[in-house]
Request: fold
Amino acid sequence: MRDLKMMTYGEAIREALDDALAQFPDMLLIGEGVPDPKTIFGTTQGLREKYGAERVLDMPLAENGMTGICIGAALAGMRPVLVHQRIDFALLSVDQLVNNAAKWHYMFDGQQKVPLVIRVIIGRGWGQGPQHSQSLQAMFAQVPGLKVVMPTTAGDAYHFMLAAIADNNPVLFIEHRWLHHIIGEVDKQAPAAGLDGAAVMREGRDVTLAAFSHMSIEALKAATTLAEHGIDAEVLDMRCVSALDIESVAASLAKTGGKLLIADCAPEMASSGHQLLSKLVLAHGDSLKQAPRLIVYPNHPVPTSHYVANHYYPGAEQIASAVLEMLGRSELTASVIGALQSDLPKDQPDRSFVGPF
Amino acid sequence: MSPASADLKHLYYQMLRIRRAEEAIARRYAEQQMRCPTHLCIGEEAIAVGVSAHLTVQDKVFSNHRGHGHYLAKGGDLPRLLAELYGFAEGCCGGRGGSMHLTDLEAGFVASTPIVGGTVPLAAGYAWAEKIKQKAVEGHRNVVVIFFGDGCFEEGVMHETLNFAVLKQLPLLFICENNQYSVMTALAERQPKRDIYPIAAAHGLTAVNGDGNRVDEVYELARVAVANARNGLGPQFLELHTHRWPEHCGPNEDDDLGYRSPGELAEWKLRCPLLQTRQMLLAKQLSNDTELAQMETQLAEEIEQAFEWALQGTRPTIDSMGQHLYA
Ligand SMILES: Cc1ncc(C[n+]2csc(CCOP(=O)(O)OP(=O)(O)O)c2C)c(N)n1
Reply:
């Protein structure tokens, strides 16, 4: 019998960590707040009680040192999973991650390996401001030797986490905080994820929407409303950032008449969309039949004030109206935007959220 | 030399001002109009006040995520702090920063930011520049103060900065607010059982510890430390023991979560810096109930007016969002 369960993205991560701790006796789960009462937004709940304080533990505020310590432990055969509640804190550990973890296997002629997972949370909202809501995924994806994944669905969160822990390389596992509450199906018997390959979230014939992380959810929202207006968008989730799956994009474009829109949760200059486009053009120069569009954040930090931050983040509305422009169907814009509009403030992931984190 | 009678009253007033401002922020946070992470310093007021009492406007302060008290004690503008929490253009950062990013250059409060340890080397760099610029005026130089927590002491940059500060004999005060917790993680999960200040001392500077809930004690320790730093004796380090009453971030208390040992918070509340000072003022007949009640009325009015002013703030324009990326 298949073990099919509906759960939130956050629960899927907890479930994967739980199963991995059971499966890999050498796994360690470490990070600031991992065993505290709030358990990293609930994603490490109960794990210390189940697997003990030797394997599930808090750590000093020493991101760089602790990353190096985890690399050392990984060299000696452990499988550490190191958690940062914000990607901004991981910036302190870039030296260890880039100079050591990403290069060790190569530098020593393949004789040693670093099976390390770094979990980082990105996201927005409630005045997180310039130093607590950055989108640095593309920067990390530019480091050879480091695998960077950004799963969007609960099912992928579960399987990617297990695959990342089983992987013998350093993997940066990026979670958008606003995905944590979204419910999806987790099929534990599904084949193991490969940490490569895009996922088709929705099939369509009229336009290809290639999106990253939380923007895939926005793209799906746009596609659903567009479908009510007779426009059939295909949505690809570009869940593997360092191994961008250009082949799937090209295959989709062959179906949708070479019309591509990319949506990313990062400033324009920091978007993996550029990498995607460049690789696509180099490998499949004739796949684009029309100028592609890129829906991204502006090229400056996000201010704290919600009065302006609410205008920083594009979403389903911007995606849908760009699609209508591309298809020459702008007469539908008012009606589509009207259907997509929500009175939920953009700094809240859902109505139950009341701050401060 | 403990603070003179007038000083003690003044210190009490400053602490009370921070306490009442923080309580008002906590009360109004529930209205969902201050939409930013907010770390209150209730219970820790004596440190900011006792240290800042020795600083002039020319002296500079750097701070961290828990910066309201440091900002106010240094003379930071209260209405502009509140406007910042509301995200208005009149805020001290124009709404760009919220509670975790404060600045008031007129008051000599350079900046607070929320990446733990981020401002520690900046304070040293500022002190270095001050020392270079003020070489000619021997005997009296401006000092720089960096406030940080016990958690921050674990960051590598802390120790890199201590080393350089001693090497260059900078006019810099390291003020470690040891409240025993980093978010909800107790010191014992993060550091071996030993004091913090001897480690700073091992870098070769003068480091002492004291009761951070006794404003008279903080005042006296800071008096010596500031004088030393001013007189060219190099960086100084104070480890001050205290406790935060509210949750790490947000307006409420969270003792029900059980990360503190039972009774710990209650015990610290008995050691409230305001309560202790009030008892001293009354016992020494330096003040009386009428005067203390007047202080409350005066502060209530000031804080109410500050909120009224802040709430009339204007929204930053959407166009302004892209400004100031480059100087
Ligand atoms: C580099 C970095 N790591 C983690 C965090 C998350 N964080 C914010 S405040 C804090 C606790 C800091 O503790 P401490 O320095 O003792 O100050 P306190 O909050 O107790 O005043 C942590 C872990 C951060 N902001 N920056």
